[in-house]
Design goal:
Layout (H helix, E strand, L loop, with lengths): L14 H8 L3 H10 L6 E2 L5 E2 L2 H16 L4 H10 L1 H32 L1
Antiparallel strand pairs: 1-2
Helix pairs in contact: 1-2, 3-5
Length: 116
Amino acid sequence: MPYKEKEIEKKYYSIGEVASMFKVAPSLIRYWEGEFDIIKPKKDKKGNRRFTKEDIEKIRYIYQLVKIKGYTLQGAQEVIRGDHQKVFDKAAMVDRLHQIKRFLVEIRDTMHVESK
């Protein structure tokens, strides 16, 4: 099996990187930061927001509630207030399943190419 270099994992992401992950405008991420008190990115000396993976998971769940499931902001806030640890565990599980799917598709595509 060929040597595969380990990917470098970033600790912090800019607001532009986070916005592009969800295909939304950075202004929406800033707006959600004001609306949802669970989003608390660190800020550097210049005031630029630096998001951690945990922040991104929280944003991912808000995105799922608002953009995919159609909740209002108030409805999403109520869901998060209800049992937020359960909410984030579920969001993490969904994200992990998407990662597994991408991995399996990559294996399938590799096997398909090799069989030709």
